[in-house]
Amino acid sequence: MRRLLAVLTVVGALSLLAACGSDEPETDTSQPVTVEIEFSGDTVTPAGDRIRVAKGQEVEFEVKADAPGEIHVHTTPDKTLPYDAGTTLIEVGTFDRPGVYSVESHALGKTIVQLEVS
Amino acid sequence: MTAPGAVASEVLSDPARPADTLVWAHGVGGAKDLPIPPELAILGAVAAMAVSFGVLALAWRTPRFSGESAGTPVPLVERVVDSAVVRWALRVIGLFFLVYLAFAAVFGQELQLNPLIGIFYIWWWVGVPVASVFLGPVWRAISPARTINAGLTWLTGGGSGNGLFTYPAKLGYWPAALGLLAFVWQELVHPDGVAVHSVRLWCAVYLAIMLMGGLIFGSTFYKYADPFEVLSEMAAKLSVWGRREGRLVVRSPLANLDTVEPAPGLVAVMCVLFGSTAFDSFSHSTPWVKLLAGADWMSGRPWTLPFVNTVALLGFCLVVAVVFALGTMLTGVDESVRRRDLPGQFAHTIVPIIVGYLVAHYLTLLVEQGQQTLIQFSDPLSDGSNLFGTANLEIHYILSDHPTFLATIKVIAVVAGHVLGVISSHDRAVRLLPARHHLTGQIPLLVAMICFTVGGLYLLFAS
Fold first, then answer.
1. Whole domain around residue A68: which residue ranges?
2. Predicted interface score ipTM higher than 0.90
């Protein structure tokens, strides 16, 4: 039992060491992230891509659509962003909390992108 | 525009859904947790494997956990916990929540702000099992269905254990497994899963079945067929509290796990819990999201998305069942033990793995969205009232704001669950297996557990 506990302690300690954070490579977060979204008929592109966003970085959607509609961003609470036919630039704002935020079209029942904020 | 990540103070209503739009199922809660970093996932996997083979090589050769007979009595705590005052207070709390939820469900608004949603999906589904890990079988003490049944039995003068019929032993935990499946289907697949009218219906049907079952089979029905009671009991096996001949005792969680009695459907319960949590994780991963978003054959037909999600949910539960069955049955046994009985005999060993993974998956939901539910709790009608003084509390995002810390907790929870599972299964193996198979006989189950743990870590990494 003692040997077992010793092994477990060593393993546990190693795990904790690894948890002492890792350095993310620096990316330019002063520029806004522009997501180009295109709606045509029943389809939307992108379809489910994951986009990395820095905490506090501005996010905007450039929407090209053939009909007006709404985009839902699953923050707490949800945000509903309307767009018109043609090209619309939507300023989404900044995400101040790390997490994975789903951006969806409820009308089409599809996820457009997932914003991974870290 | 307010920052999307912050809690807005304005009341936002759900957009009215036109009849022809595809309704969307996305479970409760806004943002999901970040994926855990790959280094942590790999380290967790390595730790799990190292522990598994360490236990195999170094651990004891005769059974250590004596289950029922283990434990130190704690008379002082027992006197408090078993006192009529405390027992009645707990029953009243359960009844209060029944009345409160009924009130919010019937008179509250059809909004995501209705506390019914948060209480149902967070406090009840996650909070009660987590509380049970620390306090013992919580649901059994507060369940309003049990209270009502006890009241009816007292009124009619019958004994509470018996109903009109005896609960059929062959049925075992199967009704609870189905109940849990019904819950996770509602949470993860049902397009209207987080709508007030839908949750209200689920609760009404649940209560009706519980009350009828209690009348027909007596209070034994709750022990085997109430999904929340079975969930709470399983989590309570990881607590230090137990009963020996009716007396309250404190014993090691490993000894507590040893007291789980095999019964039909127990393995099904485990598979539903683990499979559904794994599916929930997987359904947010990029491959699945892209698969669904790119599937043009699904457009325009409202039944296709729930259909695909149902198949995937069942698929995950089935894979867990097959892996576990193979892990337990591919071992050498002598004539006294039937191979078919082995999964049931080892079902308790994956309880820690399941609870560890449930904690990793739902911790943020419980701690952060749970605080939001506490705020909504004071306002059941969503009209700005502050009945219990919690409406103006601030949410502390102590986990989301520290993603590395959160990721570490998740990995520790999963690996700790694995460690307990491996130790528990080792003890059961040396009890059940003939001496020549003590070591080799454990390897299939160890491999199954490693698959579960590594699979769980992978899903946390890929979500």
1. 33-117
2. no
What residues form DSSP beta bridges with B305? none
* Cis before B302 (ω within 30): no
CB B176 within 8 A of CB B265: yes
Longest CA span, chain B: 72
Q: In degrees rounded to 5, what are phi and psi of residue B229?
A: -70, -40
Would the CA dihedral through B223, B229, B234, B240 be positive or negative?
negative
The tokens describing A3, both together, are: 């040997």
**Residues of chain A neighbouring B294 (CB-CB closer than 8 A):** 47-48
Which of B33, B54, B404 is the closest to A4 by Cβ?
Answer: B54
What is the token pair recorded at B413?
Answer: 């929870």
For residue B366, the 8-state DSSP code is I
* Residues B270-309 pLDDT 10s: 999 999 999 999 999 999 998 888 877 777 677 888 999 9
The domain that contains A84 carries what CATH number?
2.60.40.420
The SS3 of residue A14 is helix
- Residue B422: strand, helix, or coil: helix
In a domain, A70, yes or no: yes
Whether this prediction's pTM lies above 0.95 is answered by no
Give residue-wise pLDDT tens across range A19-48.
Answer: 555 555 556 678 899 999 999 988 898 988
Find residue A65's DSSP bridge partners.
A39, A86
> Based on the structure, what is the number of domains in chain A?
1
B16 DSSP 8-state letter: P
3-class secondary-structure state, position B430? helix
CB of A38 within 8 Å of a chain B CB? The answer is no
Kindly determine whether residue B298 and residue A109, on different chains, have CB atoms separated by under 8 Å: yes
DSSP three-state, residue B202? helix
Q: How far apart are CA B70 and CA B432, in angstroms?
A: 19
Answer whether residue A96 is part of any domain.
yes
